[in-house]
Every structure is written in C-alpha cells, then in structure tokens.
Amino acid sequence: MSVRPTRLFARTLLAAAVTSAFPLVALADEPDQSATAQDTAAVAKPAGQRLETVIVTAQRRAENLKEVPMSVTAIKGDKLDVLTSGGADIRFLAGRSPSLNVESDYGRSFPRFYIRGQGNTDFDLNASQPVGLVVDDIVQESPMLKGFPVFDVDQVEVLRGPQGTLFGRNSPAGVIKFDSAKPVFKTEGYAVLGAGNYGTINAEGAYNLPLSDMLALRVSLQSQHRNDRVHNPRPNAYTRDFEGYDDNAARIQLLFKPTRDFSALFNAHGRDMKGNATLFRANIIKKGTNDLVDGFDYDRYPTDGGNSQTLRTSGANLRLRWDLDGMTLHSITGYEHASFYSRGDVDGGFGAVYAPPMGPNYPGQNAFIPFTVETADLLPEHDQTTQEIRLESNTKDPLQWMAGVFYFNEHIRIDSISFNTLAPGNPQNDAYATQTQDARSWAVFGTLNYKFSDQLKLRGGVRYTSDNKDFVAQRFEPPQTSGPLPLHSDSHNVSWDASATYALDAETNLFARVATGYRAPSMQGRLNGLGDKPSIAGAEKALSYEAGIKADLLDRRARLSATAFQYRVKDKQLTAGSGTINMNQLINAEKVTGQGVELDFQAILADDWRASIGASYNDTEIKDPNLFVQTCGNQPNTGGVNGCTPTGAPGPFPYTQKLNGLPLPRSPKWQTNFTLRYSHPLADGELYALTDWSYRTEYNMFLYEAKEYKAKALLEGGLRVGYKWDNGKYEVAAFARNITNRIQVVAAIDFDNLTGIVNEPRNYGAQFRVNF
To answer: Distance (Å, rounded) from C-alpha 58 to C-alpha 56?
Structure first.
C-alpha cells in the first residue's frame, strides 16, 4: 500500500503525540463494535477493546462524528452518569466540553450558556442568548425552558460555531442538543435511587412498554430533593433557611409505527420546581482583591429580605416521519409553556434598621448595608409554538439534499416587583414594572451535500429568516404611571455555510468550514423609575472560519479531534449594568473578534483503563473605540465598602470605563477537562472507578474590569466508584462532587457593595441502580 507524504506526515505527528502522552496503550485486534444504551451496563469485556463509534445528528442526519465537518463533542453513558451524580442541574455541563461555560444568577433556573466566549449576562426573563438549546428537535428559546432536568437522555451534543442554517433560531455561537431515549418495541427500563449530604434524595427511572406491534410507550420520571443548608441568623428575618429545593420532572412518549414507512412520536413533558433564588452575599469580597473575606462562612447568610423561587414548565410535541420513494418527510410541531416566580434580597445583606453591624460574632461576613433592594421577577405568561416541515433525500447517491420551512411564535409577559421588607406592613410592594413581548419568526432553508470522490465531500447551506417583534414596557408607582412605552422591530437575514471534508485515509479526515450566524434584535424594559425608557439592541451577525482534523488512532484505541477557529461578530449584543442599582441596558458593540483552538481526545490505555482530555483556548476582544459603560458603585456616600477597584481604561465621564480591547465577560481563555476510568472484572461483576476534572482560567464577571470582579481560576473534580453485577442488572456506587471543597466567588452583582455569588460546596452520597 502506498501512502502519500501528506498523509504520512499527519499520521506520524498524531501517533507520536498519542504514544508520548499514553505510552501504556495495549494493542490487540477485535471486531468492530457500536455503542448502545445497554453497552454501558455490560460487564464482560473482550481483551483489546476499541473505542465505540460515535453517531451524532449535528446536521439533522445520523452520521459518524468523524464525518461531520465542524467541531462537535458528544457526551453520553458513564460520563453523563458521573456528571449528574448528586442531583446536579444542567450547569454540570460547564467546562465538560471545550469552549463551553454555563452559569446562572438564578440558581437551578435560567442557565446562561457560553460557547467560544459568546454568551449573554442579561438577567431579564426575555433575554436572548447566542447559544441555541434544542431538546428533542424543539428549540427552547426562553431562558426558563433551558434548565429542564437531564434524565433518561441518550446523548448530549455540543455544536460549536454558528448554526444558522439548520438551527437558525438565534444560534450564532453554537447549539447544545439533547436527545431523550426513545420508545422501542421491547420491555425494558431502569430505576435509580440516591442519597447524599444535606438531606439530598434523588430518584430517577424509566419504563418502556410495547402496547402492541404498532404502539410503544416510554415513561421517564425524575425527583430531586435537598434540605436547606444555609441559615439566616438575623432575628425576625423574613426567610430563615435557604438552598433547599424540590425539583420534579416527567416525560411521556408514545410511538406509533403502523408501517415501515411511517412513524408518529408524541412527547409530553413537565417540570415543577420549588426552592430558593441564588444567594447574593453582601460584602464577601475583600477590597482590592478577588479573595473571599477572612472568616467567610458558607452556612450563614444574614439578610432582611425574602427569598423563594418556583418554576413550572410544560410542553408537548409531535414528530411525524414518512419514508417516501427517494426522500423522507418530517413534520415537527412543538408547544412550550412556563410560569416563574423568583424573589431575592439583591442587596445581599441587612439594612440600617438593624444597626449596628453584626460585629465579632460573625467574622468576615459583615453584611450590613445602609439601603435595601429586594425584588421579585415573575413570568405569569409564556407560550411558545413552533412548526417545522423538512424534506430530505434518503438515497445513497453522491448528491444529498435537505429543504424545509420553520415557524416560531412566542408570547411573554414579565412583572418586576420592588419590595421593602423593612417598611410597615412587611413585606410591602411599593413599585412594579411590566413588559410584554410578542415575537414571530419564519424561515426557509436548504442544504446540499455532494460526494465528489471517496476522499472529498462538500456541503453548502442557506437560510432566509424573517423576525418580527413587538414590545411594551410600563412602570407603576402608585398613584403615578409611566408608559406604555412600545418598541417594534422587523429584521431579515440570510445565513449560509460551506464546508469540506477530505479523507487522508480510512482513519483520518481533514475538514474546513465557513459559516454565518444571526441573532434577532433584543428588547428590555426593566424600568427603575418613571423617567426610564426601554432599551433595544439591533441584530448581530457572525462570520466564522474553522479547520481541523479528526482521526482514529492506534487501530481505534484512540481518537483525536482538533480545531482552529476565528470569528468576528458585527453589532454584537451586550448587556451593561448600571454600577449602582439592579438594572441592565442593552447595547451593541461595533465588532467583537475571537480566535482559538479546541482539542478532544479519548484513549484506551489498557483493557481496564480509559481516559479523555478536552482543552480549548479562546481569545476574545471587544473592538469599539466609542463604547463605554458605568462601573461598579464608586460614587461618594454609597455606603458599604464604597464600591470596587476598576482597572481598565477610564471612560469620558466619571465612574465609566472604555470597553475597547477588553475580552467578553464570563469567558475564560483556557479550559481543560479530564476523565480517567478504571474497570476490572470481580467475582461475577465489574468494579469501576471514574474521576473527572475541569479547570478554567480567570475571567471578567462584567463588561468592565475590576480587581474584585475578576473571577479566579477554578479547578473542580468529581469521583464515582461502583460495582455492577448480574450482567449489569444491578449497580451500587458512591460519588462525590467538588471533592476538594474549593469555595470562591464566581459571579457578582454590579452594585454599590461587594456582593458576590459563590460556587457549590462539596456534596457526596451513594446510589443504587437496577436495569430490567
């Protein structure tokens, strides 16, 4: 067999890198094996294993991950099990894929996603994000829909870079895609029961039942509970205990398949969550540093305000599929509904009525402030309807195609209420603002794939989108009223992408991709006073270039994916805080650029050992010489610790800072993740241990720079040790998350005092699982 010099050079480099990093890899031949949901429970393992083939639907077709010309990570099986141990919500994905971060200022609701540095720090309930979330082929546009619990899921896919052609609803940074386990025509299921510290109880299960030779039912349930673990020591406090929750969710799917050529899948799902809003802790950051104050006590939260949160979501979708002569027709209809209430003490402390401050009995946690800011955000109305019709080829011809239409309709009402717990009639509602938003969008799209030879495949796609949005804001301060203040936008866009895959040989593919993305205009009207006006940010448009290599190495004992990328975003939508009060304002930056590299690597080190490494480098920069924002509360006589310590270039007015040259917020330059799994036959079962670690470097919490608001680098790890027996039918495991118990400030409020949010403490427990 002859090998071209370019192929030989690439393969030699890859093999040298792998063998130097993992010199103990054992090689042996075995038949090709594909992964199924049941494979992860199997005990018997032949010598000389190979990595499973990973199938993804990043291009709306089932394809080998190696054949997809973009940067994609798939998470499934044991890795999902260990990451969700202890009842973690969707934020468990943070750092577990290259260039991916997830955080929230609301807790278990309202997650905010960032890919390659692009995200949105906006905390308003109609905030749009440049990262799309798709669950069972239905886009989840509202932030309240994006935190649905992860259970009975086949696979999570992280698609990096603009996805404007096939997932065109506001996804210029990328898409995170969840695929639930589907009904099958056999009786099977599983049940998991876990318990841990803080009174944590987690239960999950699924039952699949064939009702006939044409009908199959799958019922999936999850229930999560945790006791309160933080106590308020203040006398006569409105809320005394915090951070407990009850979070229940269910999914029912019914598959109807009367013939080989037609199927209908109905999905109904819902969630009911009760708990607390995120705790904003006043004066916990040491002035002039990003350290916690000396003597910080996680278990105590002195506050004078109320704190509660409820979220209820429900939805249904119907997916129809017809296999015709040479083509397949899909119809996907979806409906989602949400209602939300979240009340918190935003100032993070207690007011002057309790003077003097706490003193030596509460070292390092002087939560005294001379003002009170307590708010509640409600989503009393939210309805989303989507419809997609898609027609695609299903032949084995060199030319493959896809075409479709998409419709989106959303109605939202948001109420923002101000409270004053210290006033007579505790609690007292003294002002509120309302926002209503109606968004309508439709699109037509199409793609072509052509296989020129066994080595070269080209793909191109285009999408036309029309967005229409009506927005009204109003504020009430009885007996006065401001508004109604309307905003309207019509926006149109053509997004496209083009990519190529070239096979150096049967194990190695090179790919290149250029793509555009688009995010419709955003509006916001959290009015703080009668003279305030709503803000609007115009549409943003992204252009991205990437190229990379995907290879199976060492006779499929190792797999590598590496990507280099560069992008620019025109009129980037950003969120600026006020620096003094609980307000946001939407702005557009003239341009934002980003560049970096991403690496995904998996290897079988020996029959009993597997490892994976993911890494990314993201260098982002805001480029707008005329853009500036107000910084944290350094105005005189604001009390507390009198604000933070800005370090960036001063703006044209006092207490402002220029943004030109600064990175995007919540965007660490370096992220890495690592997993190591050991498994070995023992008695009639399998003993295993899996550890996972993620590391990220520092980032700015806000658009501007300040010493106190630069999050420290963070290393967190988890461990799961277990035993499976009876051919994988039974499993018992112990787990721990954040095993080093590292606690630090990860976010803050852009406010008059150094109020911070800290990460989750260590949690641990045990689980029992039965498969049937």
So the answer is: 6
* Rounded-to-integer distance, Cα 412 and Cα 472, Å: 11
Q: Which residue has the tokens 């890494």?
A: 615
Backbone angles phi, psi at 361, to 5 degrees: -70, -15
Phi-psi category of 279—alpha, beta or left, where left has phi over 0 and alpha has psi -120 to 50? beta
Dihedral sign of CA atoms 295, 300, 304, 305 in order: positive
Q: Are 421 and 306 in contact (CB under 8 A)?
A: yes
Q: 703: which 2 tokens?
A: 């658009």
- Only one residue has tokens 């007579």, namely 424
What Cα–Cα distance (Å) separates residue 99 from each residue in 161, 186, 501, 571? 10, 39, 23, 22
| Alpha carbons 237 and 21: distance in angstroms, whole number | 56
Chain-centroid distance of CA 526 in Å reads 24
**Calpha distance 744→369 (Å, rounded):** 22
pLDDT tens digits for 389-445?
A: 999 999 999 999 999 999 999 999 999 988 877 666 555 566 888 999 999 999 999
> d(Cα 581, Cα 124) in Å, to the nearest integer?
14
Handedness of CA 69, 73, 74, 78 (dihedral sign): positive
Q: How confident is the model at residue 352 (pLDDT cuts 50, 70, 90)?
A: low
Pair 427, 420: CB distance under 8 Å: yes
* Per-residue tokens: 262: 């037609």
Please give the pLDDT value at position 45: 42
* 10 three-class SS: helix
Tell whether the torsion through CA atoms of 421, 425, 427 and 430 is positive or negative.
negative
Nearest C-alpha neighbor of 474 from the set 435, 522, 516: 435
User: What is the C-alpha to C-alpha distance for residues 337 and 271, in angstroms, rounded to an integer?
Assistant: 10
Dist CA 495 CA 175 (whole Å): 15
C-alpha 143/C-alpha 80 separation (Å) is 23
Q: What is the pLDDT of residues 653-679, one digit of tens each?
A: 988 999 999 999 999 999 999 999 999
- The pLDDT confidence band at residue 386, using thresholds 50, 70 and 90, is very high
For residue 137, count other CB atoms closer than 10 A to its CB: 21
Q: Compute φ and ψ for 126, nearest 5 degrees.
A: -110, 15
Q: How many residues belong to the chain?
A: 772
pLDDT digits (tens, 9 = 90+) for 725-741: 999 999 999 999 999 99
pLDDT digits (tens, 9 = 90+) for 636-652: 444 444 578 899 899 99
Instruction: Say which DSSP state 452 is in.
Output: -
State residue 17's pLDDT score: 40
8 Å CB contact between 408 and 441: yes
What is the three-class DSSP state of 145? helix
User: In angstroms, rounded to a whole number, what is the distance separating the alpha carbons of residues 96 and 696?
Assistant: 11
pLDDT tops 80 at residue 31? no
Neighbours of 34 (CB within 10 A): 9
Q: What pTM does this model have?
A: 0.90
